[in-house]
Amino acid sequence: MRKTPRPSRPVDHEPVDHELVDHELVDHELVEAAARVVREHASGEEHTVAAAGRTDDGRVVTALNVHHFTGGPCAELVVIGAAAAQGARSLTAIVAVGGDGRDILPPCGRCRQVLLDCYPAVEVIVDDGRPRSVPVTDLLPGAYVNAEHQ
Asked: How many CB atoms lie within 10 A of CB 26?
């Protein structure tokens, strides 16, 4: 699973100015944290994807999805709840990693919308041939913006 090392994005506590961020830099600690959780704790069909998020104060929060026929929560949504329960005010970056060798996974449409609504400046780590960090807004061009978040 280890890919060519790239420099990690430094953790800062200021809002991200997307015009100045080098999106080629990936927070590899997050990728490794999610990969470790899915490798060590994925079980059967109920837990198949792990996510890791970087809080605004630099902590890493991890979680697993809960697969259920009713549409249980994705790992990214569980990270959002876990981070809030641990007192995090915001997430600056997030990544999902699938079990069974699926590596980095892009967030589904629902997760993209929730991330945009809750953390419009969050960076999402994706892999379209190479890992890279992109603003969530790039994943939802022309997105619906909830009036409560404007």
From this structure: 25
- pTM (2 d.p.): 0.80
Task: Output the tens digit of pLDDT for each of the chain's 150 residues.
Answer: 333 333 333 333 333 333 434 456 899 999 999 999 999 998 888 899 999 999 999 999 999 999 888 888 999 999 999 999 999 999 999 999 999 989 999 999 999 999 999 999 999 999 999 999 999 999 998 887 776 765
Closest CA to 75 of 104, 95, 45, 102: 95
Active-site residues: which are they?
76
Q: How far is residue 8's CA from residue 37's CA, in Å, rounded to a whole number?
A: 20
Element (H, E) at 96: strand 91-98
Q: What is the DSSP string of 13-67?
A: SSPP-TTT--TT---HHHHHHHHHHHHHH-BTTTB-EEEEEEETTS-EEEEE---
Query: Which residue(s) pair with 123 in the sheet?
Result: 93, 135
Q: How many CB atoms lie within 10 A of CB 139?
A: 18
